[in-house]
Amino acid sequence: MTTPAQHALALVLHGGAWDIPDELVEPHKKGLRAALKVGWDVLQKRGAAVDAVEEAIIVMEQDDTFDAGRGSFINGAGEVELDASIMNGATFRAGAVAAVQNIPHPITLARAIMEKSEHILLVGMGASRFAREHKIKTCSQDDLITSRELERWRALQAGGAFSTKDAFRRKRHPSGTVGAVALDHRGNVAAGTSTGGTPNKYPGRVGDSPLIGCGTYAENRAGAVSTSGWGEAMIKVVMAKTVIDLMDWHEMGPSRAAEEALKILKKKASGYGGIIVLNPEGDVGIAFNTPRMARAYQTSSMRSPIVEV
Ligand code: ASP
């Protein structure tokens, strides 16, 4: 009896696309390395792509370097409201939460919605209720707020409110959304994204990250995508699905599809951001039109991971 050859494995992560200052380069790399290790272990132990995505994102949600989970941006009302989504390319199912409070790991809540409900997106109080019913970990607002973000928020409040567009146009347009795409030994793909959104955002504002097709997309036939950047622009060009369509219908490889999608984002919506993508063969694409993007990847054809900012 012959054992079937193992499918190629691949895991790609991002930790935000923006003008990351020099002093934050190392913390971003450290956080990515830790998350990559956890996700890669899952894949190497013949775990599912969707598990690798969730586990890697949990590590980054825990790390207050990133705008996800603890350390997220604070909204105009002084609260942390989180968005996340996950999609399993094998089952073609998806789950997402938006503007949810008191949840340290919204990616886990998004996954529970995908697997334990008939819905895709739950928001606000309903999402919190679902979390309680399914015993998803909760926390206080204070557990999610760091002194760095409190300082930023106070400065923004003192200067008056500004639009999310301005947030991305400023010299330093902070980001730090996290995302992951994975390919497992069965050839299944998955994608996930988690974020605190944009600094000082209007309460209830929802960006691209929890919207399937904008921040996240995965289907076994074409591949998996996660994005980061100015959400209002990303939504208009349906960013993640655009990348998938370029691969699926226009037969582009992941790198070319990511580059072309960014051109569309820039041209149609004057948008900024970054994309991570992989196809079912395990080819990886990463592209961004911001000064820097925190990113990391490992595939079964590589001897060691690549972590770059
Ligand atoms: N895309 C996120 C949002 O607009 C922010 C980011 O990725 O930096 O909510």
Structure, described:
By secondary structure, the protein is an alpha+beta fold. The protein has helices spanning 25-44, 49-62, 106-116, 124-133, 141-144, 147-158, 164-169, 231-236, 239-248, 254-269; strands at residues 10-18, 82-88, 93-100, 121-123, 178-183, 189-195, 216-219, 223-229, 273-278, 284-288, 292-299, 306-308. It is built from ten helices and twelve strands. The strands form two sheets. The chain has an eight-stranded mixed beta sheet. A four-stranded antiparallel beta sheet has the order 7-8-9-10. Strand 5 (178-183) and strand 6 form a beta hairpin. Helix 1 (25-44) runs antiparallel to helix 2 (49-62) and helix 9 (239-248) packs across helix 10. Bound molecules: aspartic acid (ASP). The site of aspartic acid has 12 residues, from strand 8.
Instruction: Give the strand order, joined by hyphens, for the main sheet.
Output: 4-3-2-6-5-1-11-12
The biggest beta sheet reads:
8 strands, mixed
Structural class: alpha+beta
Percentage of residues in DSSP E strands: 15-25%
- Ligand names: aspartic acid
Order of helices and strands: EHHEEHEHHHHEEEEHHHEEEE
Total DSSP E strands:
12
Note the quaternary state here. single chain
Query: Averaging pLDDT over every residue, what do you get?
Result: 94
Overall tally of domains: 1
Classify the fold: give the CATH topology: Glutamine Phosphoribosylpyrophosphate, subunit 1, domain 1
Number of helices: 10
Rg (C-alpha, Å): 18 Å
Shape: globular
CATH H-tier superfamily? (Glycosyl)asparaginase
Instruction: Report the span from N to C terminus.
Output: 46 Å
Low-confidence stretches: none
Report the top-level CATH class.
Answer: Alpha Beta
Per CATH, which architecture?
Answer: 4-Layer Sandwich
